[in-house]
């Protein structure tokens, strides 16, 4: 068909072209404005910003691009470490964000401050998953956080850790049975998974009295499949929250999957809260005191659900990833494994003789745990805080600046640890060793230090000692390069760690 010369073709006619050019003029104007303001922002960040004199990669000082480029690849901790090596102990990671990498900075950033405190920042709202009340982990207000920690002080005490020992013993026995029954094969067992099962089973049982039962079912509880991937999105959101214009836009994007996951997690936490509230009287779990306060009306149910969510994550994940890193390093260094075997097998006649009190006194066992967590800290990037406008490490850090210590950088720094990439438990017990041990802080430090630290040492000591006592463990070839495959998106994303378990020939129990 022939189109007449002056017919109006919708995509080619005069009237539409006029409209199009009007719109395109507007678009161009908006684009020009955006470009001009971005350039203006970059110039400001580089030459006028209060942090302009702090070194760092050019892209990081001027924009968010350095952060965006490297943060999502899984090796963020290594990029930050490299930048520290090049630019020094304090670097600008993005225009309004400082990373510190000296041993002393741990106290300066996280310790008790004289003036206005350095508190948790907005990042922790995401970790709190949008409950209406902040939890022991997500509360940002300094004084409220202290009150919320007090609710669980008794549960986290030495006395309560000792009271929970029978629960721990029962779960370790079940775990060992599984290793024995399933682990003596060519493929062995993926210990990253099994430590997660153990960590979450024992964590949930101790926290609110109901175990996930992953060990019994030999598979993950739905919670794990929902919560752990969520932290990948937290990592993405942590980038985008820095662009004020994008935040309201993001809320418009229909993210059904994400909302569904969040909804399920919140519902689970609330259901467990309701169930736990029905069990009144001492239950010997973390929530005895909190339940009492809810019943007296001092604490809301929403707050209790928010605590319950935090404990469900905090008590399992960090413990599991720490144990995976510890076991890898131990088995990749057979002479260290043998040394630990000698200590543990020499100290007890049977696994039934082992208790937390004596295990905590075995020097080599404790050194193995500390060295494993130095090389493979559960949270390798910084634990973010916000400056109230204060001096940190001799620098005035303006109010609103994000600050943290990069854990990986300090615990792998040659100035603090000789041979930092070598697994040497001896450095923790040798009185002549000059290493600066305070540079490794896998549990954090100060008022927000991990309250589960004692419990974590108790659990890891019992679990590792009984494994070493009962089995001859072998790292399978497929897992030799495990270290290089580990990535971080706030928490670790680890490749399989396949280990074969053979019963020790002359086991005594
Ligand atoms: C090896 C095991 C563990 C490691 C490496 C670890 C590490 C950490 C780290 C690095 C923090 C953040 C501290 C901060 O922001 O300054 C933390 C917080 C926390 N951990 Fe642990 N943790 C472990 C086990 C546990 C256990 C077993 C529990 C529960 C009993 C627990 C409960 C918590 C809670 C509730 C918080 C939040 C504290 C607050 O914000 O005030 N953790 N942990």
Automatic annotation (TrEMBL):
UniProt binding sites for heme: 450
Keywords, in A-Z order: Heme, Iron, Metal-binding, Monooxygenase, Oxidoreductase
A Pfam family annotated for this UniProt entry: p450
Cofactors named for this entry: heme
InterPro entries linked to this entry: Cyt_P450, Cyt_P450_CS, Cyt_P450_E_grp-I, Cyt_P450_sf, Cytochrome_P450_monoxygenase
GO molecular function: heme binding; iron ion binding; monooxygenase activity; oxidoreductase activity, acting on paired donors, with incorporation or reduction of molecular oxygen
Family: Belongs to the cytochrome P450 family.
Protein name: Benzoate 4-monooxygenase cytochrome p450
């Amino acid at each position: 068909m022939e189109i007449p010369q002056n017919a109006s073709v919708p995509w080619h006619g005069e009237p539409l072209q006029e409209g199009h050019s009007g719109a395109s003029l507007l678009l161009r104007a908006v684009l020009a404005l955006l470009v001009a303001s971005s350039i203006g922002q970059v110039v400001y960040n580089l030459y006028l910003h209060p942090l302009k004199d702090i070194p760092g990669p050019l892209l990081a000082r001027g924009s968010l691009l350095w952060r965006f480029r490297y943060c999502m690849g899984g090796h963020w901790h290594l990029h930050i470490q490299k930048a520290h090596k090049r630019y020094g102990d304090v670097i600008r990671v993005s225009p309004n964000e400082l990373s510190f990498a000296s041993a002393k900075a741990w106290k300066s950033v996280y310790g008790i401050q004289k003036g206005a405190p350095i508190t948790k920042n907005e990042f922790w709202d995401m970790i709190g998953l949008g409950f209406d009340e902040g939890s022991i982990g997500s509360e940002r207000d300094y004084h409220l956080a202290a009150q919320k920690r007090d609710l669980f002080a008794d549960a986290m005490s030495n006395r309560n850790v000792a009271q929970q020992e029978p629960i721990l013993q029962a779960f370790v026995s079940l775990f060992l049975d599984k290793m024995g029954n399933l682990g003596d094969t060519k493929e062995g067992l993926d210990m990253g998974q099994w430590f997660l099962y153990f960590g979450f089973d024992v964590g949930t049982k101790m926290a609110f009295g109901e175990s996930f039962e992953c060990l019994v079912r030999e598979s993950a509880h739905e919670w794990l499949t929902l919560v752990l991937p969520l932290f990948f999105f937290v990592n993405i959101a942590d980038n985008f929250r820095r662009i004020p214009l994008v935040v309201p836009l993001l809320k418009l994007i229909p993210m059904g999957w994400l909302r569904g996951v969040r909804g399920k997690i919140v519902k689970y936490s609330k259901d467990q809260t309701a169930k736990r509230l029905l069990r009144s009287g001492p239950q010997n779990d973390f929530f005895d005191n909190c339940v009492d306060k809810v019943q007296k009306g001092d604490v809301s149910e929403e707050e209790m659900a928010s605590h319950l969510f935090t404990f469900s994550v905090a008590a399992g994940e960090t413990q599991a990833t720490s144990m995976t890193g510890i076991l890898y390093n131990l088995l990749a260094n057979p002479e260290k494994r043998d040394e630990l075997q000698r200590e543990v097998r020499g100290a007890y006649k049977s696994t039934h003789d082992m208790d937390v009190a004596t295990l905590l006194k075995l020097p080599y066992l404790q050194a193995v745990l500390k060295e494993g967590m130095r090389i493979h800290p559960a949270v390798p990037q910084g634990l973010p805080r916000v400056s109230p406008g204060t001096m940190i490490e001799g620098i005035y850090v303006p109010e609103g600046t994000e600050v943290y210590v990069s854990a990986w950088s300090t615990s792998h720094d040659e100035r603090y640890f000789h041979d930092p990439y070598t697994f040497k438990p001896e450095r923790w017990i040798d009185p002549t060793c000059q290493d600066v041990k305070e540079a490794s802080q896998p549990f954090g430090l100060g008022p927000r230090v991990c309250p589960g630290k004692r419990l974590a040492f108790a659990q890891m000591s019992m679990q590792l000692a009984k494994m070493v006592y009962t089995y001859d463990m072998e790292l399978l070839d497929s897992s030799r390069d495990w270290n290089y495959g580990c990535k971080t998106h706030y928490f670790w994303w680890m490749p399989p760690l396949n280990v074969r378990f053979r019963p020790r020939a002359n086991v005594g129990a």
